[in-house]
TrEMBL record:
It is found in: Secreted. GO terms for cellular component: extracellular region. Residues 1-26 form the signal peptide. Keywords: Disulfide bond, Secreted, Signal. Pfam families: Granulin. This is GRANULINS domain-containing protein. The keyword ATP-binding does not apply. SUPFAM superfamilies: Granulin repeat. InterPro entries: Granulin (IPR000118), Granulin_fam (IPR039036), Granulin_sf (IPR037277). Belongs to the granulin family. Residues 31-84 form the Granulins domain.
């Protein structure tokens, strides 16, 4: 009986450990080294010309620091920064 309790306890401990690891290792999308600014998982962190951070509403976006904006994945900031152009 003692062996059965030990195995059950070990399995339970491993389950809790794996659950903890899955929460701890989830992508935290932290934007800055001080870890004071964070975006949602579906957003992209962008640092702008004024050195502030913002969250772009697109995953894997291209940041446009000159205009504090961003373009969706597959697009780049235009030279004047007012639009996005498709990458070829």
């Amino acid at each position: 009986m003692s062996h059965h309790i030990s195995v059950t306890t070990s399995i339970l401990f491993c389950s809790y450990f794996l659950l903890f690891i899955s929460f701890a290792s989830s992508s935290q999308n932290i934007c800055n080294e001080a870890e004071t600014y964070q975006c949602e998982d579906y957003q992209t962190c962008c640092q702008f010309a004024d050195e502030n951070y913002g969250c772009c509403p697109y995953s894997y976006a291209n940041c446009c620091p000159k205009t504090n904006s961003c373009c969706p994945s597959g697009f780049a900031c235009s030279n004047n920064g007012t639009s996005c152009t498709r990458l070829t």
